[in-house]
Write a structure and sequence with these properties.
Elements (H helix, E strand, L loop, with lengths): L1 H16 L24 E4 L3 E10 L6 E9 L4 E9 L9 E5 L11 E2 L3 E5 L2 E5 L2 E5 L9 E6 L2 E10 L2 E9 L5 E8 L2 E4 L3
């Protein structure tokens, strides 16, 4: 009987570690220094949403234009913010497949996404580059985050279905091995912040 209980307990423990959508593979153990507050995979649903595509121009004289893609679900207060680089200098929503790459400047390339990190400037620590965030609806002008996760791995694909109508599909991973995934279909407001 003890052997049967042990086998049953081990099977339940194994099943609890499997990550959905990855073929039943086990997730690695959560790193102690993970910045993510997520405890499981996160599907971001954009039922009531808006997307902004903010162009910041040539990024630190790299020859790549930097775009901030800001996808916000108003009903759930969840948002995905991704900073990506592209060789195109057109002021239109960049399309194609974009892959998260290392934060080192030497590894930046066309169609790369800069991974989420914590940065410090003028004594203030903040989330830089690419993140999933869930805002507390009761927070005021300065947002309080109920959940946050740096995007450190994965792919974003942007296609223009028809003029001004886009499909944003993403499959990301945070620094605690949680999947962050979803799809948005709709318009995107282009904003020009080039200097």
């Amino acid at each position: 009987m003890k052997r049967l209980l042990f086998v049953l307990f081990a099977a339940v423990a194994l099943c609890a570690c499997e990550a959905p959508g990855n073929g039943g593979e086990q997730k690695p153990p959560r790193p102690e220094n993970a910045l993510s507050t997520l405890t499981d995979d996160k599907e971001v649903v954009f039922d009531v949403a808006q997307v902004w595509a903010d162009c910041f121009g040539d990024y630190y004289n790299t020859g790549y234009y930097m775009w901030g893609m800001y996808l916000q679900a108003y009903d759930t207060r969840e948002q995905v913010y991704v900073e990506l680089l592209t060789s195109s200098t057109e002021l239109v929503v960049p399309t194609g497949k974009f892959t998260v790459t290392a934060a080192a400047k030497e590894q930046w390339s066309d169609r790369c996404i800069l991974p989420g990190i914590m940065a410090e400037e003028y004594g203030e620590v903040y989330q830089a580059y690419s993140w999933f965030l869930k805002v507390d609806p009761s927070s005021g002008f300065i947002p309080v985050y109920l959940e946050q996760a740096p995007i450190v791995k994965g792919v974003l694909t942007i296609t223009e279905e028809s003029e001004g109508y886009y499909d944003f599909t993403f499959e990301f991973e945070d620094d605690a091995y949680n999947r962050i995934y979803g799809t948005y279909k709709g318009g995107a407001a282009v904003e020009d912040f080039r200097m």
